[in-house]
Write a structure and sequence with these properties.
CATH class: Alpha Beta
Order of helices and strands: HHEHEEHEH
Strand order of the largest sheet: 1-2-3-4
Number of domains: 1
Number of helices: 5
Distance between the termini: 49 Å
Bound molecules: magnesium ion
Number of strands: 4
Length: about 150
């Protein structure tokens, strides 16, 4: 069941229609597109956003594709998005994206483990319910003081 109002404008016209019709939460992929739409929209204003990137570790793929990516070093459970620079005493920022109706059990064991490892190494690493929530966390991180060199 839908338990909060969804702002469909951030998903683009096609997805917005689908969401409105289906009355369901956007898929994680749509959330990630929405997240990067926000990132690109604000890049001029906040140049650090140019260093935010996605890790191609998830989503549906064939066995052959999965095997090829694994051979190329893609690791299961690595968070979806990274900003690799330090702020506020953290080593870097990592975000694992879930749908807006996400629950902790949506995290795979590997995903939970990676978040823990990253935190142990001084990163800010967490999971977020939707692209907007994740973007808000990233903006909070970017507002932290830069490390002195
Ligand atoms: Mg994810």
């Amino acid at each position: 069941m839908r338990d909060r109002v969804i702002d469909t404008s951030m998903y683009g016209p096609q997805n917005a229609t689908k969401i409105a019709v289906a009355g369901s939460f956007p898929l994680e992929e749509a959330e990630q597109r929405a997240f990067f739409r926000l990132v690109r929209e604000r890049e001029q204003e906040i140049p650090d956003l140019r260093f935010v990137f996605a890790v191609p570790n998830g989503g549906g793929r064939s066995k052959a594709e999965a095997g090829a990516l694994k051979a190329q070093g893609v690791r299961r459970g690595v968070p979806d998005v990274c900003f690799p620079f330090p702020r506020g005493g953290y080593a870097g920022w990592w975000g694992e994206l879930k749908r807006q109706n996400g629950v902790p059990s949506d995290l795979s064991e590997e995903q939970a483990q990676w978040l823990l490892w990253l935190r142990e190494q001084g990163h800010r690493a967490g999971w977020h319910k939707g692209g907007l929530a994740m973007f808000a966390d990233l903006m909070e991180y970017l507002a932290l003081p830069e490390a002195r060199r």
